Batch of 2 targets.
Target 1
Amino acid sequence: MKKRRIPIAPYIFIAPAILIFLFFIFVPAIDGFLQSIFTRGIIVRQDIPSLRSKFVGFLNYQKLILDPRFLIAFGKTILFTLIAVPSILIVSLSLALILQEKIFGIGVARAMVYWPAMISPIIIGIAWRWILGYETGILNYFLTLFRLDKLPWLIDSYLAFISVIVVSTWAQIGFFMVIFIGGLNAIPETYYEAAKIDGASNWRQFLSITLPLLKPTTLLVFVLSTINSFKVYQFVVVLTSGGPGRSTTFLVQNIYEEAFTKPMSVGYASAQSVVFFFVMLLLSLIQFKLAKEESL
Amino acid sequence: MKSKFLWISIFMLLIGSLVFGQPNKDVTAKKEANTNKELTALWFYDDPSELDFLNKKIAEYSASHPGITIKVNTVAYDDLFPRITQLVAGNNPPDIVKLTDIRPEIEPFILDLSQYFGKDFLKPFIPGVAAALNRDGKIMGAPLDVTANGIILNKSLFDNAGIAIPSKEKAWTYKEFLDAISKVKAKTGVLYGLVWDVTPHRWSTYLFQNGGSFFDATGRKSNFNSPAAIQSLRGFADMFENGYIPKSIWIGSENPRDIFFSGQAVAWMSGSWQIKAMLEKIKNFEWTAGPNPYVTTRSSVLGYKFVSAFSTSKYPDVAADFIKFFTSKENNSEYAQSLTTIASRTDTGIINYGNAQASSALNNLAYELAISPLSASTDIANPVMGYIWTTLKENVIAVLTKTKTSEQAAADVNNKIEESIKVVYGN
Amino acid sequence: MKRKENYIVLKYFIVILVSITFFFPMLWVVISAFKGESELFLNPPKILPVHITFENFISGLKFGNFTKYFINSTYVTIISTIITVIISTMAGYGFAKFKFPGRDILFMGIMATLMISLEIIMIPMFLTLKRYGLINTFIGIIIPPAATPTGIFLLRQHMFSIPDEVLEAAKIDGANEYQMFTWLIVPLSLPAISTLAIFSFVWRWNDYLWPFLVINDDNKRTVPLALANFVGQYAVRWGDLLAMTTLSIIPTLIIFLIFQKYFIKGISITGLTG
């Protein structure tokens, strides 16, 4: 029996997925990134002077380093991510722990927390825009019931930013909570029993057993929530349209607007996309590296 | 071997359902006769009855022109431009399209209707729109309906408070108007005095009412860095400061329409296109439109929608012919009447909308439009406007949120206008 | 003993509070869908409708021709989910249980696509689809989104927890890889598969951008696209929008309720500590 050095079987198994990725993601992505070295509009016709594309090398990249709209959107995206990710980590882990209690109806509670993760971001934006309205929104109504002042959730720049963070967290917690539940369930009971016998308190058990053994899960949540936060767009645009002004305009919205609302700006938008991709890639690699070093 | 069999059957089932199982495929005529011409029209609408009207007219047209069918695809207004550019970029543009403006990317592909109907095709239409659709002799489309910006009033509140609304001949200054609203508000206990639509197009009404304008008479030079413009930015912000207009509207996402419809505002700066929905939805109070208040100049602002054809169409002559049919005197008048808007033709005569409230409101607003300065129409129709709306809105809001002074904002908008003039008209 | 009781009350309180916080927003949308136009914008708002009305549902269904869109969405979602499950399970198996050149690079490459958001490659994506002739076809919205990195990740993680000994035993019995896959791996992966199926169902049902890119024909529209039509040039038809939103949540709700047992269990078994 000849021993084949390279097995064919695995390639066959991964082939369908790889082919789809190749044709439907990889090809357009390369195309898109190539667009960044041109100045062009959405429609390109070399025979019509106003629609010609022009090769400009790295001009678009030079432009974006100095572009305040881009830099501000970039900054806001980073700030959003810096606040949203720890919030998601802490809240989803806490909920995973709290909702492990074996009390009646806990499954229903878990389902309710997970529920928002099943709803499309557009609907989330619609629902919360409805809820956070200044005069007619139900949240302010509750505030007035407690004799508090109505807050301009979507009117004030800072509050709008906070609203976006809260809604984004609300929408994603369920998903990450379930991931944490999985991680928690994978920790063998025996460790806890042993610790109890040794007289360790709940808090001590948490610190010495739970947290360390949750590291891979935590890393997963960390990386995924970072990517999600960086990519945020759809529900924000429905909720605030990027406003008030541009206080909740993040990178993806900036790129979309650049491509679709400004003439001859698709190349520039593509340059921004390239930068966007590489920053995320860098962030993820850093996160993995940190995790590896920690576990050594 | 059993597993192979299993996978093959799964595979075949999938392929089968992909190829044969698709729901809602087009019901295309089996006989692909050569005389069968199918066109597509891309349409957006606010009110579903417009779609009914369009389909009715298409059916009429098909009946009198056998072999021709027109399929309608709809799109949400916000997605109109991305969708059109996508289609054109993909070499798959529709034959007929309803538009509100013609962006430079699309312009090379729009059919010049003067080739079919001569240079005077736009004569029967309102001059402001006709000028907008005439680009150096090329006729870019046929107007559908026009809209006039104007003030809508909760008449019941005025009656309850015992305050009179002036006649359309006399009208009122902003001072008189704001005073009157405050009195009505105080006497009836309603929540808001004035609500104002959150678009730069609606804001520009105030610019013209202050005697300002965007361009000079040639339309090739900006007129925005003027005392009138600065005053309009400041005066608008003052109305918020002094509590006449709630901040939740322009600065937040609350919708003035919803507020007015629920009877909680005395006055609403919007326009004629709302009348139809008001007829349907407002049951608890009486309303009317106009007269518009003014600072120095009485003005409304023109808005318009039109229908165009793509020169890439396989049947451009059919497309052009349908457009002519759809905007004929009879059909245009019926269109205006069924949609409860102002007709774009001047030869339709007074249209009876079948409802006294609606008729008087629309006629008041048409009156405001007729006595507006010409710039209120030609400025808006200037292709440069397409480039500056966003900047304008941002700057109005900047003055409201006190991040810019009105002088700075006016200067910024002015620069943007000058820049865009260069882009559109070349140096 | 008293202490324990106090804690129980506290626990219930927290759990109920949390549940309400998460559940209320959508509940509010559903309640509001039953309010007439005049009740939607009251200030101050009333929680329960004074008159329960179905007018929004009727007008929304008529306006949109929503039954057609529901059928389209169902078709696309189910087929795409089936494809997703099949290719993710295959790929997960390939990446988890074999060593071959390029394995890690290919896997990393797939994970990296998580960072490409569709909005930013919309234009080249459209042109690519156009080149393949997939514009305005259902295939165009079924196949491309079926390759999801998360799906492959999930299945691969799960596969790690299937002991190699089981596979060895099967090999000794003379099974080849394909037979092992069909009769051994797949049954053992059912929890992860149902998890992925649920995720995929939800994702495809809620897809907006893909159908927007691909579909021009009104007949082939899916539900999220149709919802966008309620936002007009001048105003949002809130009544209709809320009602149709309510309807469009129902399928995902049903799927979730039916499968949630499997799926919460499923995630637990995937042993993400791999």
Note: Residues 406-425 of chain B form the longest helix (20 residues).
Target 2
Amino acid sequence: MSVTLPAPTEAPNLALEGVNLANAVFASLTPHMVTRFGEVAESAATALDVLTAPEILSLLRRTQELAPLLEQGLALLAAMAGPDAGDAARLADAAQKASLAAAAPGRPVGLRELLALRREPAVQHALRFVVALVRNLRAA
Amino acid sequence: MPRRLLIVGSGTAGLMVANLTARALHAQLRRHEVEITVVGEREDYVYQPGFLYVAFDLMDPQNLTRPVRDLLDPGVQFVRDRAERVDPDAHTVALAGGQVLPYDYLVLATGSQIQPQEVPGLAEGAHWFYTLDGAIRLREALQEMQGGRVVLAVGIPHKCPVAPVEFTLMLDAWARGRGVRERFDITYTYPVARAHTIPAVAEFAEKEFARRDIACETFFNMEAVDPAQRVLHSQEGSDVPYDLLVAVPPHQGDALGAASGLAGAGNWYPTDRQLLRVAGHDDIFAVGDTTDIPVSKAGSVAHFESEVLADNLVGLLADGRRPGHAYTGRAFCFIETGLDEATYISFDFLHPPTVPTPSRSIHLFKTTYNQIHWANLKAVI
Amino acid sequence: MVTADRVIDARGSFCPGPLMEMIRAIKTAQVGEVVAVLTSDSGSRTDIPKWAEKAGHELVEVVSGEGGDTISVRKAK
């Protein structure tokens, strides 16, 4: 007895296989699935329309400059958090304290640099990107 | 006073009906004009078509299970409990935990369960892939087996009508793949005078069995199993020795049907095949395995039925519209014919099935569908 | 035409099919009860009587009608 399946009685036919697969797909579709595909396609097209608006694409390109600044900001936060830098919760806590301290007089060292980041063009572009996205989404 | 839809059963049909209806009635749910509740016995949903693959170690049991709450629309209430009795006059369902839930519309989606005790000796002597535990046990038995006589036997009625053929052909391919096919003797038995109740499937199976050296004994109805002697006896007087007996036990509907006086023989609800109403009740529906409609007990049937029922429930709940969507008997079943090839059957009340040539593409489609199913359950696709 | 104790409309049923519906119904019937299956499948005219004979039950009658046949079997054991 062969360890492989015995030779099939018909020669393989790719065209027939393609047709059978297509028929199988159509046979398996329920009416709601067909409707849903249409709805999902419409949502996807709308989302794509929003995300690819020229304004947004341009801002998206500019926010690429944001990456090194983001890294810088995180490093500053880590320094302020000290030994607890590995703990995400404490890092978030440190960030919150930093924003509160920003309003108080006698700001701690390092905070000045962090706040300066806010005025960086790339950060400003990122914030404008978010605003434009929200505006476009509302219109969609 | 919100209109209340109560669904008993958190399997395929229960979840689909709940989610399809909830999706269409989001606004009404938010405004508390409609309430949808699902009562289910288990916290988890299990993808039953996966059991066959577990037996051959092709799917991991943990990938077959997801919490029901993760699969239900957030607008649907889930009550984890067992329904004990329906009171059609009071329009309530009593739960094991003591709660009594009222309904305006009730959907019974309690599925079907194996009843191995119907065949003496079956529980002790046989393996099956119709429960997760059973599939794991069978997987272990197959892994340990060096060779011997494997016999497949089928009880009536049962869910997943093509599974006996699938298991047999997969077993053959599995043994060949391991290089040990010649050490196995495979015998397929079936209750009627051909290899399958569907003539086209019977014709296909008989050809395949002949080609692959698989013995086929028809008109074989399990009577009893002798676990000590390892012999399976048929009602027709045939005695088949086995080293591994893989059985599809007979099934029954949930005891809720009998307890409520709503179900007939076998605990199947007498159900209108088009509108899915339980006979004699305008406000009680049944869907999936639990009906007595002469269709396959299969996930695809539950799916096609659920869409029809949900469409009708949406009309009823939204503005009292009389149900006008009819189930047409549609079913779609993949048939694995090895470990990497498959075919399928597609039919309804008017069109009989035919069996296309098996191919790898259709097997890959089935593999994909194992995942699409989750989206179907959630009514996302 | 005999009055059946149970009537199953299996017209349009390709799976499990009229014969399986008959087997299922006879299984849960009382001895002596008559089960009638409505079928639109011409194969049932040979399938069901052949099964009844082999399984030891009594074929009561086969009535042909517009939508199909009504085949009645009495559970004998």
Note: Chain A touches chain B through 26 residues (CB under 8 Å).
